[in-house]
């Protein structure tokens, strides 16, 4: 059986002396792992289109042993500019690791693919603050994978907003000033709350289309990352490296 699909390479590893095993986020089949036979040979026709973070058209064969082999790959975007900036590259690699953790296996993943491609494109373009791209990608990816925070109204009284709102970084619940009975909750401005609602509830093509003041951006970046760490319950090596490079 031959599967033809577009996708982006989110992981790669060497196998044996000449081959590589790549992990691809595809539109129709989610995450797929496939062998690139001879993929470590620079003369192999599929090398350029099967590297990490390459977006390509793939022809994938499923063998009798239920293994996948990359028969042909044609690059659509290799994001060359990412390789020119270690900070940009490390952020894109973090998004790839996060995708591997959250995206489904062998089922429709068109929204995941669109999100990842847009995020990587914006990083490579260099026109938006990396903290904003990071926060949007984290919150939106959590949302489409079933971990959307509860941002519609106060979790206790259903009040839509108060001058200050408070966010539970563990449960993802929002509270107004009157219902904030826990001193450990994260205090947020209405601007930050509105940004979070925009990220989680807007149409996919609009999620990056907003600006936010510096102070609120710092809060948004902090909340998105800590909530993600708490809700997934794991550490990300690529995130730790990115933070080391930016601190």
Structural class: alpha+beta
Rg (CA only): 20 Å
In which order are the strands of the major sheet placed? 3-2-1-4-5
Fold-level CATH name of the largest domain: de novo design (two linked rop proteins)
Mean pLDDT: 93
Tell me about the largest β-sheet: 5 strands, antiparallel
- How many distinct beta strands? 8
- Tertiary shape: elongated
Unreliable spans are none
Please tally the helical runs, counting DSSP H or I stretches of 4 or more residues. Answer: 6
**Helix residue percentage:** 25-40%
Offer a few descriptive terms:
247 residues; alpha+beta; OB fold (Dihydrolipoamide Acetyltransferase, E2P); de novo design (two linked rop proteins); 2 domains; three-stranded antiparallel beta sheet; 6 helices; 8 strands; 37% helix; 23% strand; elongated
């Amino acid at each position: 059986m031959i599967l033809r699909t577009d996708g982006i390479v989110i992981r790669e590893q060497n196998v044996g002396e000449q081959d590589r095993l790549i992990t691809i986020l595809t539109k129709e089949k989610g995450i797929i792992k496939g062998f690139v036979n001879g993929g470590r040979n620079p003369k192999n026709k599929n090398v350029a289109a099967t590297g990490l973070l390459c977006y390509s058209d793939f022809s994938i064969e499923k063998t009798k042993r239920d293994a996948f082999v990359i028969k042909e790959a044609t690059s659509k975007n290799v994001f060359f500019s990412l390789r020119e900036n270690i900070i940009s590259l490390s952020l894109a690699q973090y998004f790839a690791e996060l995708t591997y953790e959250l995206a489904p296996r062998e089922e429709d993943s068109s929204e995941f693919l669109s999100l990842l491609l847009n995020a990587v494109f914006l990083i490579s373009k260099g026109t938006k603050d990396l903290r904003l791209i990071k926060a949007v990608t984290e919150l939106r990816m959590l949302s489409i994978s079933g971990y959307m925070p509860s941002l519609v109204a106060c979790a206790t009284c259903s009040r839509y907003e108060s001058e200050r709102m408070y966010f539970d970084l563990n449960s993802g619940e929002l509270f107004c000033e009157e219902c904030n009975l826990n001193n450990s909750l994260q205090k947020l401005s209405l601007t930050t709350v509105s940004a979070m609602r925009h990220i989680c509830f807007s149409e996919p093509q609009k999620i990056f289309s907003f600006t936010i003041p510096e102070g609120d951006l710092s809060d948004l970046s902090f909340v998105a990352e800590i909530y993600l760490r708490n809700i997934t319950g794991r550490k990300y090596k690529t995130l730790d490296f990115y933070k080391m490079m930016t601190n």
